[in-house]
Automatic annotation (TrEMBL):
Name assigned to this protein: tRNA (guanine-N(1)-)-methyltransferase
Matching PANTHER family: TRNA (GUANINE-N(1)-)-METHYLTRANSFERASE
Keywords: Cytoplasm, Methyltransferase, S-adenosyl-L-methionine, Transferase, tRNA processing
Source organism: Wenzhouxiangella marina
Domain tRNA methyltransferase TRMD/TRM10-type positions: 5-226
Gene Ontology biological process terms, A to Z: tRNA N1-guanine methylation
Keyword Transferase: yes
Enzyme class: transferase
Subunit structure: Homodimer.
EC numbers, comma separated: 2.1.1.228
Gene of this entry: trmD
């Protein structure tokens, strides 16, 4: 099973609607591989001003999103997509990584809840949210940029979305390592040339070079990831053949 629908609860649906026209998400929507729908909590708010926020109990700066308009928007989305998991995008959530994008891509549907201001009423989270996810240890002005990141990262994991089926498999993090460097034409550019091995036509040797470079790059730039990687026989062979940048 793979993801077929994403609903987004947002006070600024324009943020998400723009994804329908662009890149992989736009193509996936056009091809019918996924459906994307937005819901605005303000449409469910009462009163002349359709207020969706209020001051926090206990005092403090900022405003908090009121639970009822959000709840009604989520429930409307859930009625349209009963099998969806309700995800609140927040700094407290599970960190989104490569394994997480694959896990989410295998859900039947998602409802992404975008917070604003100081966040949302905790009672809403406790009663209607299934899980929380974070795109990084930093604060955004709202959940919409995080939702856009999650949608892009998850959509590209769906079957048939990428132009080449091997692209996702060879991306950074897919193997627990960073990606190797890439080169294209011209062969000589300014004072730099394409590595000789890539011009050799020896695909087995090219694969070993790429593996070695991925190991070198990860050791140099992300030693935390490298320490988690257990070197196999093919890794050792690649590093023996191309050892010059290896950092243990």
């Amino acid at each position: 099973m793979s993801l077929s629908r994403i609903d987004v609860i947002s006070l600024f649906p324009e943020w998400i609607e723009g994804l329908k026209q662009l890149g992989l998400t736009g193509r996936a929507l056009t091809d019918g591989r996924i459906e994307l729908q937005t819901w605005n909590p303000r449409d469910y708010a009462s009163g002349v001003h359709r207020s969706v926020d209020d001051r926090p109990f206990g005092g403090g700066p900022g405003m908090v999103m009121r639970p009822e308009p959000l709840a009604q928007a989520i429930e409307a989305a859930k009625s349209a997509s009963p099998s969806a998991s309700v995800v609140y995008l927040s700094p407290q959530g599970r960190a989104l990584d490569d394994a997480g994008t694959l896990e989410l891509a295998e859900r039947p549907a998602l409802i992404l809840v975008c917070g604003r201001y100081e966040g949302v009423d905790q009672r809403l989270i406790d009663s209607l949210v299934d899980e929380e996810w974070s795109v990084g240890d930093y604060v955004l002005s709202g959940g919409e940029p995080a939702a856009a990141i999650l949608i892009d990262a998850v959509t590209r994991r769906l079957p048939g979305v990428l132009g080449h089926s091997e692209s996702a498999v060879q991306d950074s993090f897919a193997t627990g390592l960073l990606d190797c460097p890439h080169y294209t034409r011209p062969e000589h550019w300014r004072d730099r040339s394409v590595p000789e091995v890539l011009l050799s036509g020896d695909h087995a040797r090219i694969d070993r070079w790429r593996r070695a470079q991925a190991l070198h790059r990860t050791a140099r730039l992300r030693p935390d990831l490298f320490r988690l990687h257990e070197l196999g026989k093919e890794d050792l062979r690649a590093l023996e053949e191309f050892p010059e940048e290896f950092l243990p």
